[in-house]
Amino acid sequence: MAGKTTSVVAHQHVFSHDLRSASFVVQDFSIDGPNDISGLEKLVLTTFPHLAGTKLDVHVLDDGLSNLLLRVDCVQQNEESFAFLVRINGLETNSIVDRELELNCMCALCEIRGVPKVYCVFNNGISYSYAKGRAMALPDFLLGDYHW
């Protein structure tokens, strides 16, 4: 009986979204973390110039193993604050995450569903839209509204 050979075919995801049609700012600066107020102010100034000079309230949403996720609230006097997310890439994570594919996926989702809207890509991260809400807990999944 002859030996059986098995061939393995590798599949590569080919993404057709063209980033040239996306509207976000690309900036050459880094943000060091939630206490880097000057970096966050620079992000606001270059991305939302009409919000320059507003008070920034920074909240750490997730201090994960690979990334740091911040919610930045631009607090305007007598107006509702404007909030957006800042994701700071973890050290050395670019070697395990395809950042270009990640950005392509975010832009495609925005095109299809309207969210998340990418605002700015900077040296060590990205800023994008924030939607008010809460994370679903396990009991939430048992509700009839979430059954297909």
UniProtKB/TrEMBL annotation:
Q: Name one GO biological process term.
A: phosphatidylethanolamine biosynthetic process
Q: In which pathway does it act?
A: Phospholipid metabolism; phosphatidylethanolamine biosynthesis; phosphatidylethanolamine from ethanolamine: step 1/3
Alphabetized, the UniProt keywords read:
Lipid biosynthesis, Lipid metabolism, Phospholipid biosynthesis, Phospholipid metabolism
List its EC numbers.
2.7.1.82
Extract the Pfam families matched here: Choline_kinase
Q: What class of enzyme is it?
A: transferase
Q: Name one GO molecular function term.
A: ethanolamine kinase activity
Concerning InterPro entries, the annotation shows: Kinase-like_dom_sf
Could you name the Gene Ontology cellular component terms for this entry?
A: cytoplasm
Family, per entry: Belongs to the choline/ethanolamine kinase family.
What's the protein called, per UniProt?
ethanolamine kinase
